[in-house]
Recover the amino acids of this structure.
């Protein structure tokens, strides 16, 4: 899909690396430059092994062939395309506003004033791009890098052009093309539990931090009631169905789920009643990806230990803040 004149900033090259050998990348020929600081399309190549990566609509794409075959990448591409086209919620994302997303980011890292943030901030799994865009806009001294496995990065790339400190990459977070030790903060909410091996994903994200950096991730807890998880189990393997079937089913079941939440007050994510549109979107979100793990606190501790994370604390169900503590 053509999203218009989207561009990649030259400065992104400073933190990118080859996903095969970790060597530096450079711009090859046939790059269409909007100006001296931006790239519309072309090719990145590795200085070491020579592997090439396309720049599509201003977004560098890594493992393009593998992403085309990835069930979860396809599912989330469908999901965010449907949301962007207004087929579920009209303004919110999962019932949250831009301010809600910023507030949660600040809560996760105990930040009092995000407007003065500096350094490199990576959001692993940008989804709608609401947080990445708002954070870059309201924290102009920071460098915000949004990565996602889905095509949602292309939908955001045209808007991102107006912000010199916002960069977008399409890749698998289990193999990010970002130099180790680059980031001051890594934020990943509701993403790791959709990967085949969340422990590996966490280790890779942790490696991106510098020695003073912090990482926050949120995963779905196995010990908290979730009607959406129950529904997914009943349906069997709904991610194998077409997106049209999943979309129709989401809207058919949403009023029933709304009535269940209203009568029982056993809300699955938020602490209050959500709209039918938000519930339909949450159903689609839960039944579309191939992987939908529910995680225990012991599993989180095991992941952190395997990643070499010595200092971590659970700050909600189930959000985890990791840091380079003593």
């Amino acid at each position: 899909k053509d999203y218009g004149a989207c561009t990649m900033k030259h400065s992104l090259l400073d933190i990118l690396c080859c996903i095969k050998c970790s060597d530096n990348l450079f711009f090859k020929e046939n790059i269409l430059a909007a100006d001296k600081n931006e790239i519309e399309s072309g090719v990145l190549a590795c200085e070491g092994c020579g592997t090439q990566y396309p720049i599509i609509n201003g977004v560098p794409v890594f493992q393009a062939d593998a992403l085309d075959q990835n069930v979860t990448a396809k599912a989330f591409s469908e999901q965010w395309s449907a949301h962007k086209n207004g087929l579920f919620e009209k303004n919110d994302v999962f019932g949250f506003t831009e301010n809600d997303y910023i507030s949660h980011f600040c809560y996760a890292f105990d930040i009092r004033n995000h407007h003065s943030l500096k350094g490199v901030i990576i959001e692993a799994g940008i989804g709608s791009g609401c947080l990445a865009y708002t954070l870059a806009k309201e924290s102009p001294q920071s460098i915000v890098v949004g990565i996602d496995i889905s095509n949602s990065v292309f939908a955001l790339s045209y808007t991102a052009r107006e912000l010199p400190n916002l960069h977008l990459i399409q890749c698998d977070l289990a193999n990010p093309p970002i130099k180790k030790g680059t980031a001051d903060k890594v934020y990943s909410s509701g993403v790791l539990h959709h990967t085949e091996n969340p422990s590996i994903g966490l280790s890779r994200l942790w490696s991106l931090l510098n020695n003073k950096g912090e990482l926050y991730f949120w995963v779905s807890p196995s010990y908290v009631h979730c009607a959406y998880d129950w529904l997914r189990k009943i349906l069997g393997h709904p991610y194998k169905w077409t997106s049209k079937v999943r979309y129709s089913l989401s809207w058919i079941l949403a009023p029933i789920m709304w009535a269940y939440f209203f009568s029982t007050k056993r809300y699955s994510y938020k602490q209050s009643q959500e709209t039918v549109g938000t519930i339909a979107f949450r159903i689609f979100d839960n039944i579309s990806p191939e992987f939908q793990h529910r995680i225990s606190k012991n599993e989180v501790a095991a992941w952190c230990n395997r990643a070499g994370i010595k200092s971590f604390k659970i700050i909600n169900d189930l959000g985890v803040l990791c840091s380079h503590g003593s």
About this structure: The two ends are 49 Å apart (CA to CA). The chain has a mean pLDDT of 92. The chain has ten helices and 13 strands. Residues 243-264 form the longest helix (22 residues).
